[in-house]
Design brief:
Rossmann fold, alpha/beta, globular, 15% strand, single chain, binds ligand AN7
């Protein structure tokens, strides 16, 4: 088989992105669609449940799909510096692709509210990291202003080229499944991803899935129908109170005959632990929001899983947020380095 060379190599002809320069790529995309029968038995009996494991992208999240496109475009446009606001994953991804292209990168993050693995990435890839005393929404407002007033390229998903990269996930799922699923479940933050999937499904000849979007209860502006001034959730990636792609999210939900709901932090964390323990797939808390929402809809009778094919998008890797993994967990047992000591705790 021909070597995988990333999304623009594979799908460039169907993406609106500059082709005047070589693609800036880390060979992103082509992530596995993993059957999840044990999770299905637990939360959606009778369904064929799959996990689109986007945490296996080069910087550990789905953001790399959009970033290969946005940074390639920035290079073609002659940019020297790119900027984004981020709850963490966009920052790490922008920093990596900027490094790859030899561009400078500035990331603006909400102080104290991003997972350590994301900050580590942004620093390792050499970005200039600026924390603000404010939320992601404040950060996005600020970087938009910077991009308006100076020659830096904005690479948040308000940049349409980002969606051109991210829409490819819809086509990958269709290729892997041989059809569209009946349901696609995913977390919703700034709503770029739900908008991008909907573009992808619309640019295919196959039937479109129904979309289940899930927000965190403390950051659920679309569910509430109004912006949330001070969003709060343990799912820090989706701690967003005024999504930039709100309108597109509503269109995707309406046209797909979909649903949007809020899951509590407890429900999200339970789903996050469940998918790791039942399937061996470790995602970050926000990524489990889609699973939490699916479980909720099945329980309430809003979604009948029997005979349905369902894909939950796991947007980011669990190792991005090691603190959440160990929070509230007892420390590992420590014993003397002797057979008898180990045997005693194992009960043998
Ligand atoms: C793991 O990195 O907004 O609805 O600045 O990191 O397209 O915003 C991240 C969002 C879901 C929500 N899952 O996607 C950022 C940022 C994970 C994420 C989302 C994010 P959108």
């Amino acid at each position: 088989m021909e070597q995988w060379k990333g999304l623009i190599h594979r799908y460039g002809a169907r993406m609106q992105v500059a082709n005047s320069v070589p693609p800036v790529t880390l060979f992103e995309g082509n992530t596995p669609l993993i059957p999840a029968p044990r999770l299905a038995a637990a939360i959606a009996p009778g369904s064929q449940l799959f996990l689109k494991y986007e945490g296996l992208n080069p910087t550990g999240s789905f953001k790399d799909r959009g970033m290969t496109a946005a940074i390639t475009q920035a290079v073609a446009d002659g940019a020297r510096t790119v900027i984004c606001a981020s709850t963490g994953n966009t920052a790490a991804s922008a920093a990596a692709y900027a490094a790859r292209a030899g561009l400078a990168c500035v990331v603006v993050i909400p102080e104290g509210k991003i997972a350590v693995g994301k900050l580590a990435g942004a620093i390792a890839y050499g970005a200039k990291v600026v924390a603000i005393k404010g939320s992601f929404d404040d950060g996005l407002r600020l970087v938009r202003e910077v991009a308006d007033k100076s020659p830096v390229a904005l690479v948040n998903s308000v940049n349409p080229v980002r969606l051109q990269g991210q829409k490819t996930a819809a086509w990958e799922i269709q290729d892997q499944l041989g059809k569209s699923p009946d349901w696609l479940c995913l977390p919703v933050g700034n709503a770029g991803n739900i908008a991008a999937y909907w573009i992808g499904f619309n640019e295919s000849d196959l039937a479109r899935p129904r979309i289940l979007g899930v927000q965190a209860e403390g950051a659920a502006p679309i569910v509430l129908g109004k912006p949330v001034l001070r969003p709060e959730t343990k799912a820090t990636a989706i701690r967003i109170g005024n999504p930039a792609r709100w309108g597109e999210a509503l269109i995707a939900l309406q046209e797909s005959n979909g649903m949007i709901l809020a899951a509590s932090d407890d429900e999200i964390i339970e789903a996050y632990r469940q998918v790791a323990r039942l399937e061996g797939v470790f995602c970050e808390p926000s990524s489990a929001a889609g699973i939490a929402g699916l479980a909720k809809c099945v329980k309430s009778g809003a979604l009948h899983p029997d005979g349905k094919s369902i894909v939950c998008v796991l947007t980011g890797h669990g190792l991005k947020d090691p603190d959440s993994a160990v929070e509230g967990i007892e420390k590992p047992l420590t014993v003397e380095a002797k057979f008898e000591s180990l045997a005693r705790v194992l009960g043998i």
